[in-house]
Amino acid sequence: MLAGTTTNFLQWQYFKEGQDRVGEKLINALLRLRGLSIKIPPQVTFWFLMVLNVSFSSDVGRRHDMWFDEVIETMGISTWGEAREVLKSLIWIDGLHDLKGKAVFEIFHLGVK
Residue 26: how many CB atoms within 10 A of its CB? Predict the structure, then answer.
């Protein structure tokens, strides 16, 4: 409920800028954090990158593709089930995120298009 409400609020808050603009702001913020060498746990980085890819169009900016691959490799995740467990340890709503999340994971990890 909290995640759904937060998503609705954020979409409303930035509605005037459009969803792609919000996605662009998110990826820019993540890339700035990475550039500052701040140690973010890989599970949190993975969650942010999944949310970015699940919530925004796929052309938001592919500058994070290699980073996504690195995080998956660092965590030793090899299946969607393992990825899903990591995501559920943070905030992940199965009915809302699973279908697209699995597709995103397979594209990045398995190269399935």
Answer: 20
Look up residue 24 and give its two tokens. 């662009």
Residues 60, 76: Cα–Cα separation, whole Å: 26
Picking from 20, 14, 9, 86, the residue whose alpha carbon sits closest to that of residue 55 is 20
Q: Give this prediction's pTM.
A: 0.71
Q: How many CB atoms lie within 10 A of CB 36?
A: 8
Residue 7 has pLDDT above 60, yes or no: yes
Q: How far apart are the C-alpha atoms of 62 and 53, rounded to whole Å?
A: 10
Looking at beta carbons, which pairs linking 98-104 to residues 24 or more positions away fall under 8 Å? 100/54, 101/50, 101/54, 104/50, 104/53, 104/54
